[in-house]
Amino acid sequence: MKVFTIGFTKKNAEQFFTRLKQPGLVRLVDARLNNVSQLAGFTKKDDLRFFLREINGIDYVHRPDLAPTKEILDEYKKNGGDWSAYERKFMELMARRRIEEKVPKELIDGGCLLCSEPTPEHCHRRLVAEHLRSRWGDLEIIHL
To answer: What's the domain of life for this entry (predicted)?
Structure first.
């Protein structure tokens, strides 16, 4: 089983959609809490669904249950980006939500987790993928 991850920040549309041209990538799994913000640019929900279908021939699904809560995000920003506290709270949230039981493996296999962060180091999409791998076992994670 394979899952990809990508962030849209610091990428133009050409870079973003070109990176999504990967063998076996069949859908984009939007793991953002807010997918309609003006800051999202070409990745606003309806635009993104259209572009993915037309440019890449892949599906789009929004899964806000894979996103941090507004409270966790606000506290992270307020505390100057304390990543270890954010990571701990987000991992606890995923455990409480039991995402490994609620998210179908078929949705993740061949999917690409989307969030805004440009790289996976300080990003919740990486934490989601690693959480699922720790629960499911055989899950290859590829960061685009």
So the answer is: Bacteria
The answer to whether residues 134 and 12 touch, using CB atoms and an 8 Å cutoff, is no
2-143, CATH topology level: Protein-Tyrosine Phosphatase; Chain A (3.90.190)
Two structure tokens written together for 7: 């962030």
Strands 2-7 and 27-30: unpaired
- Residue 6's SS3 state is strand
- Distance from C-alpha of 67 to C-alpha of 142, rounded to nearest angstrom: 19
pLDDT at 136: 97
Question: On the CB side of 131, how many CA atoms lie within 13 Å of its CA?
Answer: 24
Whole-model pTM?
0.94
